[in-house]
Amino acid sequence: MGSFVGVWKGHAVDPETRHRGSSAGVLTALTTWLLESGKATRVAGAGADRDPRRTVPVSITTKEEALASAGSRYAPTATLSNPDIQLPGTAVVGKPCEISALKSYVINAKANGNRPSTPILLSFFCAGTPSAHATQRLIESLGIAKSTVPDSLWYRGRGWPGRFTVQLRDITRSVSYDESWGKVLGPATQWRCKVCPDGVGESADIAVADFWQSDDSGYPIFVETDGSSAVIARTIRGRDLLLEAVSEGIIDLEPIDINSLAAVQPLQVQRRTGLLARLTGSLLAGRRIPLFTGFSLAKIARRQPRLFLRIARGTYQRVRSAGS
Ligand SMILES: Cc1cc2nc3c(=O)[nH]c(=O)nc-3n(C[C@H](O)[C@H](O)[C@H](O)COP(=O)(O)OP(=O)(O)OC[C@H]3O[C@@H](n4cnc5c(N)ncnc54)[C@H](O)[C@@H]3O)c2cc1C
Hints:
Bound molecules: flavin-adenine dinucleotide
Radius of gyration: 20 Å
Structural class: alpha+beta
Strand content: 15-25%
């Protein structure tokens, strides 16, 4: 789950924000509060394009814009391509990879005297970015023709977990989160996401995740209910912001044990546990691999040597058969 200063279960206090958000609207509530309290002049995030089958970087300056960007968008978008990120006073909500890249950039820029301060960095747990083709497949599975541009499209939120929904004039069609993520979007994530060492927003000030309820085997239960997030302060600044937001009635937080979060995030745990084995299998099969430092991958892998061998062998065989 990465290093942290504090970890809570929580949700946005404003019911509309909680409802619109992906898990419980915490990121949207913080976005609105950062703007209204003057702690940020704009927040860079992601939202639907005019053609809502596409997801694009957005600059948020009002509560209405924050609500319009609420909800995870399971499609490619490049938040850091937003030029506003260079402007002082911009806070950023992004995927863990984006936040980690931005933090490295700022650290270098500061060392060279080119940037005075680090923007407020908000992130979320991320299982990976699905291909844009997966969005199109879902739309067509709802009986909407490829050439049709929907009026609106959202992947989840407006409930928890919420449904993949397409609106076209007076027609609304939707499919459950379990079906959309589990069968179409999740399997379409990119290879680079499958070998990502940080799906948990380690470089952010604050990282937010779904705090699922789970069945006896630990598998998350996706029954529609009021949203609940796990909220992690990764820095002192993140913790201070969260506690101030609580005292101002923006979010509700209740302390939890980090192990209870790990228990309902099996994908994140398995991904990091098996990452070194995956990389090793790929390398032995002749692929070039990325190098990661600072994620204790060897230490984690040593705890389960049999699992390491099983995953490395499986990856080796898959890569070899894909290449032949
Ligand atoms: C691709 C992807 C994979 C995810 N995988 C997991 C996971 O494995 N486990 C888990 O617990 N949670 C995952 N989430 C996050 C989860 O769905 C919630 O976003 C998180 O719990 C925060 O909820 P919230 O209600 O506070 O966010 P909201 O209040 O709904 O705010 C969401 C914020 O995220 C930004 N955003 C939305 N989509 C993107 C995007 N594609 N790229 C960059 N920024 C974006 C928006 O600008 C908005 O500010 C994933 C999200 C995405 C986009």
